[in-house]
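Review form for a predicted model. The reviewer records the input and the model, then writes brief findings.
Reviewer: anonymous (R2)
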Amino acid sequence: MPSLLRWDPVRELEDLGRRLSPVFARVPQEVRTDERQALTAVDWAPVVDISEDAESYNVTVELPEVRKEEVKVSIENGILAISGERKKISEEKNGKRYHRIERLYGSFLRSFSLPDDADPQRVTATMKDGVLNVRIEKLAETKPRSVEIEVG
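Model under review:
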């Protein structure tokens, strides 16, 4: 005679977690080309820090292995756009054959709305050692002034 088992929602969630954990371990999704090698199938987004001081807003972007000629910085309609591409390394380079490639490659685009006091006409960008620094000057602060008006 079959016995009845009490339903345990916690056990069900634990079982679901065990079954899904291999799925999440594969993010980014891998596309197998053969048994020896896997290539990533997603574009990447570089990490960004944004700070401000009294005179400007500063955007710092980590772009390892990206040449400055392959980076575009633009401002349009109050939106700062940083785009470019990190080229995929060839599967065999300088006599090396890669067995595993985990770094992400491809095109990227990061966009940020600028604050109202950012001056889109006074922007500088420099790149050194794989780090892009974009400096956006703030507009000159308008100070209230009083004007005496003679009543006639």
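Findings: Residues 43-138 form a domain with the Immunoglobulin-like fold (CATH 2.60.40.790).
Further findings: The radius of gyration is 26 Å.
Recommendation: see findings above.
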